[in-house]
Write a structure and sequence with these properties.
It contains 4 helices and no strands. By secondary structure, the chain is mainly alpha-helical. Helix 1 packs antiparallel against helix 2 and helix 1 crosses helix 4. The radius of gyration is 31 Å and the shape is elongated.
Length: 191
């Protein structure tokens, strides 16, 4: 009889490993195999901040769209509507329309967009909101003033293009400022 070496491909029962379908590595006692459900949960958790940000941006965009309609509608009403209330004062019309649109934005963003990030210090939050909106207003007025007084573009279409450009730049500024300077409370888990 010869001393035979055990076959390296044989499993514990002496059958070839290919027939066993064994796990190619050994798990430590504290490790459990990862199931498909665990992978899905891990993927969902990893993607949740991105989904939360998209939802927040969608809410912010919705509030912004409503505020935009209020802003542009009121500006055009004051400038070109019946009675031409502020026909000769485009900057004043802009300030009034932005002030009303800001109230709409305050309610929408506080109660909906950033509702999970509200702070307990409402006066500080409101003051920050007003300061941020003054910054956004200055951006919008600056663009309108550039168009009307520097470039001499003062037709209704040109004024509206200036307003849309100013609103776009102001919106970018407002979103980041609201998020990092105004609505800075701890996020609460969804209910």
């Amino acid at each position: 009889m010869t001393d035979a070496m055990p076959d390296a491909t044989a499993g514990p029962t002496g059958t070839p490993e290919a027939e066993h379908h064994a796990v190619p590595f050994v798990l430590a006692a504290s490790e459990a195999p990862v199931t498909d459900a665990a992978h899905v949960a891990a993927d969902t958790g990893a993607r949740r901040p991105g989904r939360d940000r998209l939802a927040e941006l969608a809410k912010f965009g919705s509030v912004g769209a409503l505020s935009f309609v209020v802003d542009m509608g009121l500006f055009n009403l004051l400038q070109f509507g019946p009675g031409h209330l502020l026909a000769e004062k485009p900057l004043t019309a802009r300030v009034v329309s932005v002030a009303v649109a800001t109230l709409v934005a305050w309610v929408g963003n506080r109660l909906w967009t950033f509702s999970e990030r509200r702070t307990e210090n409402r006066p500080r939050e409101l003051a920050g909101f007003v300061v941020v909106n003054v910054g956004g207003l200055l951006i919008g007025i600056g663009v309108l003033a550039l168009f009307v007084y520097v470039l001499g573009l003062d037709s209704p279409l040109e004024k509206n293009v200036a307003n849309i450009l100013g609103i776009g730049l102001g919106t970018i500024f407002r979103y980041f400022a609201y998020r990092h300077l105004v609505f800075t409370g701890d996020r609460t888990p969804p209910k």
